[in-house]
Amino acid sequence: MSPILTENKDIQISQNLEIHPISGRIGAKILGVDLSANLSDETISEIRQALIKYKVIFFRNQKLDAQGQVAFARRFGELTTAHPTVPSLPGHPEVLDLDYGRTAARANNWHTDVTFVDRPPLGSVLRAIDIPPAGGDTIWANSVTAYQDLPPVLKSLADQLWAVHSNAYDYAEAAVNLSEEIKAHRKVFTSSVYETLHPVVRVHPESGERGLFIGGFVRQIKGLSTTESDDIIRLLQAYVTRPENTVRWRWKVGDVAFWDNRATQHYAIDDYGNQPRRVQRVTIAGDFPVSIDGKHSEAIKGDSSAYNQN
């Protein structure tokens, strides 16, 4: 049976959770939960319901290690490997170690995780290990309310569109003067090239909500030129990143963020210079995105079965 939520201004108390919404359209803090504990099925169900409602949820002061992070994420479904191309944390095949002070290229662009495969993750669980004293925040955007904001004529257009997503970089962009660090990361990131055709408007498999399914891995709209594609994606993307559709999180060591990858985009802000910033990510295997007329995504290039472990 679904838990009954009682609302008191910005606080919601359910049977097992204390939930504090952060902004009007996306994001909530959940208090009083130890993610390293053996949580009941009822608590896990309530966390999942909060995830679907708020799109990204946050937990402060957690004592998880990599093994505990994997165990918590696994309560919500089968896990992927760390990444289709980037190596995992040694000894932990499901954990992607993002050490931005030393080895990881900074992901300071709006994106949804791993949309270049045919079954992008259901969700991601990110754990903060080393955080700069200032800077290094992450912003999430609600792609469902972005779609709801579209004028009817743009909704009608978006409903019909399909887009090719890929991890391959634009060759003209790659030809500019890049640091050796970024060049090395891109070589690994594109060691296997993936391309997938996804609907621009995706129906959420649990809530039934429609959301814009675009972001940084989109390369072209099917049937349109690159110039036409860029103009349309830029227009739709502007609705996703409107301030009213976003929430910004100031990290502290021990924080855990859990976001619904089917209904969000995010952006890790690169404003912390040479200060260390290290986080670790675990992703939950997802399903094939489905369009409003019931058609699902199709792989064009690359086999993601090893990533999704199926």
Automatic annotation (TrEMBL):
Cited Pfam families: TauD (PF02668)
Domain TauD/TfdA-like: 19-283
Cofactor(s) recorded in Swiss-Prot or TrEMBL: Fe(2+)
Keywords tagged on the record: Dioxygenase, Iron, Metal-binding, Oxidoreductase
GO molecular function annotation: dioxygenase activity
InterPro entries the UniProt entry points to: AtsK-like (IPR051323), TauD-like_sf (IPR042098), TauD/TfdA-like (IPR003819)
Top-level lineage group: Bacteria
Keyword Metal-binding: yes
Family: Belongs to the TfdA dioxygenase family.
Protein name, entry field: TauD/TfdA dioxygenase family protein
Source organism of the structure: Floridaenema aerugineum BLCC-F46
Lineage of source species: Bacteria, Bacillati, Cyanobacteriota, Cyanophyceae, Oscillatoriophycideae
